[in-house]
Amino acid sequence: MKKDGSGLYFWLNGKMVKAKDANVPILTHSMQYGSGIFEGIRAYNTSRGAAIFRLDDHIKRFFRSAKIYAMDLGYTQKGIHDAVVKTVVYNKLDSCYIRPFAFYDDDSIGISTTGKRISVFVAARPFGAYYGKGKESGISCKISSWQRINSLILPPEAKASGNYINSIIANLDARMAGADEAILTSLDGYVAEGPGENIFIVEDGELVTPSREADILLGITRDSIIKIAESMGVRLSERNIHKEELYTCDEAFFAGTAAEITPITRIDSRKVGKGVPGPLTKMLGNEYSRIANGQRRDFDYWLTYV
Predict the structure, then answer these.
(1) For 202, which of 40, 147, 245, 251 could close a Cys bridge (C-beta 3.0–4.6 Å)?
(2) What single DSSP character describes residue 94?
(3) pLDDT along the chain (306 residues), means of 10
(4) Could you tell me if 67 and 113 lie in one domain?
(5) Does 91 share its domain with 214?
(6) What pLDDT sits at residue 3?
(7) What is the DSSP string of 253-265?
(8) Dihedral angle, C-alpha 264, 267, 269, 274, nearest 10 °
(9) Cα separation of 76 and 275, whole Å?
(10) For residue 173, what are the domain limits?
């Protein structure tokens, strides 16, 4: 397989096609206007073979995004579930990143989506640590001058392509300032999330994360961390987080499908805690990995073995 994934096969509108042959018109509506919806899912290599992490929950969110944007995907949730499994199996992958994507496969000019054809594809390809060595050692972040979209602007609970322009410009701002990633605040000035991740902090042994009211994407990994923490008796609070709490907290980390559990060790050039991944961050990260790799049978219901 080449680095561009051209040796792989993708599922496109019910058929397996070579990645290099999965073509759409250059003027496709969703490329012009960001009108696609998508999911990011991981499969992990376990002792029982490849296991897709929380597949049904990702598919449910995929369909919620479609409903928000009035997209008739033409498939049932089971149909997309089966397409994901087929794509992983067909490519003989064990550990990989999976991308279901629905888009307006139409090359006309104009923003209206009425009457436009919708296509759905599922791609899967090998994928390592999103932040490289930062997954273990921690990353630096900059509180962005760009604020997070809210429900008065665009629906943040829909995982839509256009939403991520907000993420891209925040990430660019952080990178240009020498940081690894951005942290966005809500229009009210509270901490919201990263460009593609939810955020958690630790204060005096309590795990804290922004609530739904902070206009966040309701992340599947975020929900996983909350449930894992509860199972371990960790004190947890979902509430507004003031920006200055990022400077004074003991620990901080991102949680997301791509990022998994990534420690944040520096924010705006200030050390987070002692400047190294904290004990609760490491403990939750280890438990998340154990569950994803099929080593905690009490959470086996999160895994779809293929």
Answers:
(1) 251
(2) S
(3) 68 96 92 96 97 98 98 98 98 96 93 94 96 94 96 95 97 98 96 98 97 94 98 97 98 98 97 98 98 96 97
(4) yes
(5) no
(6) 46
(7) EEEETTTEEEEEE
(8) -50
(9) 47
(10) 134-292
Helix H, strand E, coil C: the string for 132-161 is CCHHHHCEEEEECCCCCCCCCCCCCCCCEH
Q: Which residue has the tokens 């969110």?
A: 61
- Predicted pLDDT of residue 6: 58
Catalytic residue (one of 142, 159, 271, 282): 159
96, 125, 154 — which closes off a domain? 125
In total, the chain counts a number of residues equal to 306
Q: Structure tokens of 254?
A: 């991102």
CA distance 210 to 200: 8
φ/ψ bin of 205: left (φ > 0), alpha (ψ from -120 to 50), beta (otherwise): left
Q: Which tokens sit at 301?
A: 């219901």
Residue 285 lies in a domain: yes
* Active-site annotation holds for 159: yes
Judge if 145 and 188 occupy the same domain: yes
Domains contained in the chain, number: 2
Residue 36: per-residue pLDDT: 97
Task: Report whether 182 contacts 142 (CB < 8 A).
Answer: yes
Cα-only R_g, the chain = 19
Q: Is 109 exposed, middle or buried (0-12, 13-18, 19+ CB in 10 A)?
A: exposed
Tell me how far CA of residue 49 lies from CA of 55, 300, 306, in angstroms.
Answer: 15, 13, 7
Please report whether residue 108 resides in a domain: yes
User: What is the spatial distance between Cα 24 and Cα 32, in angstroms, rounded to a whole number?
Assistant: 12
Which of 74, 93, 125 terminates a domain? The answer is 125
Cα atoms in the Cβ-side hemisphere of radius 13 Å centred on 149: 21
